[in-house]
Structures are given as C-alpha cells and as structure tokens.
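If I may wish for something, please sit down with the protein I am sending here and say whether tokens and residues agree:
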Amino acid sequence: MLELVFLAAGLLALAAAVAVVLAQRTPAEHAQAAIRVGLLEPESRLNPPADLRPGMLGALIDGEVSDRDLKLTLLDLAARGYLTITPTTTASGRSTWQLDRTVKPIDATLLGYEHALLTRPFENGSVLLNQLARDPAKPLEQARTAVSEEVRAKGWFLTDAKSRHSRWGWIGALVLVLGLLATAFMLIDWAATNDFRGVIGGLGVVAAGVLLASKGRARSSHTPAGVTALTHAEQLKSALHDLQPEEIAVVTAGAEFSRLLPWAIGFGAETKLATAVDDELQRAAKWGQHVELQLSWLTSEAGHQVDGDARKIATEVATVVNRKTNGRGHAQRVATPA
C-alpha cells in the first residue's frame, strides 16, 4: 500500500511540474513562438529590419557594444553615402582606412551614435581609422555610449537582473531533495518487499524537481521586443548565408553589394554575398551584359573609385572590421548581467 501511495504521489508531482513549466512561459518565449510560425516575416528576405542597424547587431545578440560594431557603423554610413573609405597602410604595415566626409548632409534619418561618428572626428578633415581610438575627444567612447542608449531606448533588454530569475529554482531544489530522500527510502523498501512501484514514485518526484529547478535558471535578458528583433536578424542572417546569384539584380549589383556588405560582415556571410555578386556579374557577361561592380564609397589612394572583384573587396574590408583594436577588444555592456 505504501508503494502505491509513493507511486501516485510521484506521478502527480511530475504532472504538476510539467503543467507549471508550460504555464510559466515567459512573455519572450510566447513572442518567439508566435514569430516562428511566420506571422512577422519581413517583406523581402534581404531587407534588414527597419529598427535595426549593422552597428547594433552586437548589442542585440550578446548585450555588448564593441569596436567591431562601431566599424560596421562606419562601413554602413559609407554605403549610405555619408563617408568615403580609402584603404591605406600604416607605417607599421597594417591595413587601415582613411575616412572622409562626403557632401551628403546630416539628416533626420541618422541615429544619435551615427551622428556622433560623423561630426567630431571630421572637424579637421580626413581621419585614419586607427587614430580614432587615440583621439583625445574619445569619439568612439561617445558613440559606444550612444549605441547603448539607443538599444536601451528600444526596450530590447530587461532592466532588472532579478526579473530574469524566479522562485521556481528554490522550489525545484526542495522538491529534488525530497525526491532523492523518497527514492532512497523506497529502494530500501524495494529490497524488503520486492515492490518497485515506490521507487518509480520517488524518481517521479526527482524529475519534477529537475523540471521546476529549470524554471529558476537565468532567463533570457531579452524582452518580447528584443526577441522579435533577434528573430528578424536571424532571418536576414539565414538569407545572406543562403544567398544565390540569381537574387542579385545585375543592374543594381553595386548598390546591393554596398547595402548588404555591413550586414554580411556582421553575420560572417561576406564571402557568400561577394561570391553571389561575382557569379551573377560573370553570368551576365557571358550573355553580353557587361556591368562593372562600381562602389562610390570605396576609393583608391589615387582618388579613383574602386571596382572589380567583390570577393577581394569583401575580404579586405572584413579584415579591417574584424581586427581587434590594439590587439584587444573594447566593449560596453547594454544588458544587465544575470
């Protein structure tokens, strides 16, 4: 009789734990489930999310704003016509960029951190990328702070670390201990009565404790809005990694390459993008449609626009973007640590 009671209690505890886990889904989990059914698909799979810029990817994904994010922002600003980039080499032989402002005026489409990167550094004309970190006015630090403020304003992260935990961790631990004690007791009973049902009940309580404790682990620091932004970013990442040459229009290949390159580098898909562009241009050339890949934002040291091989350009640009500043990375946290 005792064995039957323990069996029933264990199964009831396990069923209750499963019900709690399903009922206690966070708002972010509900939002992610809703997004995955395809209700919020972007209009085009190659269209970036409207409220996200390449320089905000790092902050959105891991809660930190790094030098890499700021370099992606500079590249994005160049692609949008605010800057020109001239690849050059420092005295130590390292590749870097000479950055120059174009005549395109600053307008309302710019976010705060983009405005910061387009103003103070260029008050005296051209600037080398590797000199920005040594600028006494600390434009990179100002821009990093502005990115953090922009991301916080969008409400992508929970602001209180305590809100990412729950009481279920403590309840689960208590149930787990009770389950282990019950299992040990029923193992002794099994040896005496040869009835295994009580052990099954004890193991059911143990499983219930594990399930409840899992609800007490640190939850995602993202809010439902943050989960939505993450999901849309993942959709663009998948589109870039799966990009096919026929998705690139020959007549606008340069514009498409420029628009997507900051995103592709941010997602590690620059080779895929460049290969698709090169392959489509080569395919068009075989049919008599010769189009050069011209990039107005990328110039040579002689002042000429750079054209030619997208793969070579993407590799060289990505090398500068991904290189750590002075051998180390600088980052500023956006999300509250768990």
User: Anything to note?
Assistant: The beta strands are 64-66, 83-89, 95-101, 127-128, 294-299, 305-307, 331-333. Residues 26-42 have pLDDT under 50 and may be disordered. The radius of gyration is 28 Å.
